[in-house]
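Thread: "does anyone have the structure for this chain?"

Original post by V.I.:
We have the sequence but no experimental structure in hand. Need at least a predicted one for the grant figures.
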Amino acid sequence: MSEQYEYLPHRLLRRRVRDIASGAEGELMAVVNEDVSDSPTRTYWKELAYIRGASGREFTTAVENVQPAYDQPKTAAGRRDERSA
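Reply from O.Q.:
Generated one for you, tokens below.
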């Protein structure tokens, strides 16, 4: 049986990050290239970021959604204002 995942390096590992899809923040624990297919005959690989939130629970998001977190979290309204500028 082949491996269903592989760990990847990332410049923000062990740093505070924000998931831009949900706005949630936490520490980037791992980046994994994971087979997310539900079929035994086909594979579909996706790079997932594992982020540990303040509660201690980890959640995943696409690696493209990860950005460094700054001292002041941005609200959804703040992000909309930046796009229109």
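V.I.: this helps a lot. The chain is about 10% helix and 40% strand.
O.Q.: and Residues 5-84 form a domain with the SH3 type barrels. fold (CATH 2.30.30).
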